[in-house]
Write a structure and sequence with these properties.
The structure is a homotetramer. The first copy, chain A, is mainly alpha-helical. Chain A contains twelve helices and five strands. In chain A, helix 3 packs antiparallel against helix 8 (150-161), helix 3 crosses helix 11 and helix 6 crosses helix 10. The termini of chain A are far apart.
């Protein structure tokens, strides 16, 4: 078997090197955590605008209230307080297709539009495919935030003011206009759609987008575990969940 | 049962509020991810020096090479690529007592010293307790980084230059001097010890310290999953692990 | 580094061997799953009485209704249906100190009594230690099943009729009598206490007891996931849990 | 929201009821664990032949040596021994599409053949679809067990002698003959294919098949954790995995 290569980390007695940069001389105290994670994951230090854009996306995804993810982490923590890592892991296990899968799905569609000879025709084809399959276009629609998702508005504003907005933000606007025209009403561009667009314009590949959501939600979950430490809600949530179901 | 309260998140059609602050007007684009996670977890926006200190700690903990945590995440990802969240969760499950438990253990000891009437006597008592139990003092010793851990040196320098270094950094220096005197040689203050000290001086409670390690490692693991996507090492690692064990 | 040995599995083109036995000639169709897991974990095929006893314990632990473990698995499954394994894993993460830790704790105490010169004195010492620490003796007490846990009664009956009941069942009876005398009232021997006793009498080490609980709960969780597939309760439970907490 | 119903468990002070049966009078001591899990998951007590068939499948899937699943569980256990549940959970997270997904995929194909007007034509269509997509037919092929998988042979023998073998075993034989004819050579029916066929003939729905694999692997992992307790291999495996990758 040929030996694969890892380029992430080497160390000596004197230093640690992450992707070839000295941890103590070039990273600690020199990069923010956001810059460092971009470097770790994608192999290049982001520029200031990209960093602000990624910060904005991470802040957007971090906290969503008592979602299944948060409920799960809090219940697991109080059931097994010896293992905070288990509680965070259990919570993250639900950050899957239903919640963040749409981000990747949307990014793939935007890539198709950007690469198409006729973006208009590609957007129309995408809308037709989804209508035929009876499926929502990923990145669009929201049960509460109507007509517009305030987070998307903010992220697009920021992308423009930072000079990040490029072909993928254009593509989502085109896709949005196409959806609105075809459905005869305005459909929300939700936050996962907006994030797919702005991070694609930072050259983040669709395949790893979910990873940034996981990092951000991880921080959100630590906040829930901290709240569970100081004001435990597990037993009330358990009782509430149990009572919501008829037992036969 | 009395109803517990959550203060983390509420939302309206127009906005989302995290701990009472408007997500779109006060958080996205206004706080870095590091500031936002500190606010989410501890309930106050950190000052610039605290933010830089936390950034430095998160950058320090992020990447450690092909550790069990990283190997686990990469093996799980390639076995079940439908679930990146499962791979990250599996990896984080090993961020436990052996690796980051020492951070909490050290922070508890530093708190004892800070609160003691005689810090010197408390430090001596701590060293005696551990010697009697045949246990290493958490936060001290390192298999590779000798005589000193370059990350600890860097973190203490930064803590001093930022004006963060306070009673807990003093406490770990006192504990270190006590250990060296009692053992007759210099024992490394490792990175988890240094982080315990500097984050305690940012008023981060010992009980939630592991949470910051989890967030940081989560970013590190996403980097490993990305590398696994572009240069898969799973089968080589599997073969290497299997061959290292005799089968009877 | 000296090479450690694994004795669990080898294979050839023609067969697979588990702990030296031919999978196709000696295990499949020859052993029940319960016998096979005992053999896999402990290295010997159990006798018929031990098998029935272990079956009884596994059946006892399997299903407990909408506990945090089950709620977690169901929420995770519906959030990320692409990964049934993630849902089971998330559920199992909460099978920790609060729920099954007592089984191990109880088994350790029974071992102390069995090995003591004076079992009576050891039982008294154990009760005194726990009273002093303000802690419940693991394996004793139950919020619903009073004065007796019907599962414990059944398990002890079975242990006697199968000829399994030995020194550890005697030890838990002695411990129970001591607790009742010291507290002036009858305290329930709960199911985890009974299981600790009867499995210790099958020579199952305390250190691996939790493993059997995990296998049994795993089956219980698959039942919850199946029910979630045919009658989804996740959204009702989520709403119930969320509504049970005040949002500020 | 309409209240969903759970039918799995209710309890009183005197007893616990699982799907309406008394735990203490009808389940503990009356059903084996295999019978009880079938009842828990599918709602009916299996007959003796179905029980033996399920036992055989569970025994087949339990142990596969130092696979990524086992390596992961052992590394996680030794990194965080406070949480055996975390180690099992981490291991199970890799029981996904690559390893057991084929069982479900195969069961879906067998269902198509069983329900088709012309099973021959359906089998041919399935083979053509996979050839066109450049994909292996799930349930077929094995890197080591050639020309036949000894586990499959054994499971089919057992299914016949127990009177379980029915339309789905016929369907996999038809599919196998079609594959062999089209590819001009004999392709192995692997163990996941055989299990898909025989459990489908026990009326186990394809959608929950993976659940039985998870239960069985859970037992296998507890065996690995036990071996790790008595003969730790983690550090050797870590070193082996790390050395198998070039570090740049």
């Amino acid at each position: 078997m040929s030996r694969p290569t890892t380029r992430l980390c080497t160390s000596t007695a004197d230093d640690v090197f992450v992707r070839g940069k000295s941890l103590t001389r070039e990273l600690i105290g020199e990069l923010t955590f956001t810059e460092a994670m971009f470097f770790q994951i994608l192999g290049r230090v982001p520029g200031p605008a990209e960093t602000q854009m990624l910060d904005a996306c991470l802040v957007t995804l971090m906290e969503h209230g008592l979602t299944p993810t948060a409920i799960t982490a809090r219940m697991t923590y109080t059931s097994a307080p010896e293992s905070m890592q288990g509680a965070v892991a259990a919570g993250l296990a639900s950050v899957g297709s239903l919640y963040v899968g749409t981000m990747e799905g949307c990014a793939h569609l935007l890539r198709r539009i950007v690469r198409a000879e006729s973006p208009q025709a590609e957007a129309a084809a995408i809308v037709a495919e989804h209508r035929e399959a009876g499926a929502r276009v990923p990145g669009f629609g929201h049960p509460v935030h109507r007509p517009d998702d305030p987070r998307s508005i903010k992220l697009f504003e920021l992308a423009r003011s930072l000079g990040i907005a490029g072909s993928h933000v254009e593509a989502i606007e085109l896709l949005s206009a196409t959806i609105d025209r075809e459905s005869g009403k305005h459909v929300t561009i939700n936050a996962t759609g907006a994030i797919a667009a702005v991070l694609s314009d930072c050259d983040v590949p669709a395949e790893i987008l979910r990873g940034f959501a996981l990092i951000s939600r991880c921080a959100g979950l630590v906040g829930h575990i901290r709240e569970e430490q100081v004001e435990p809600a597990m037993h009330a949530m358990w009782h509430g969940a149990e009572s919501a179901v008829r037992h036969e």
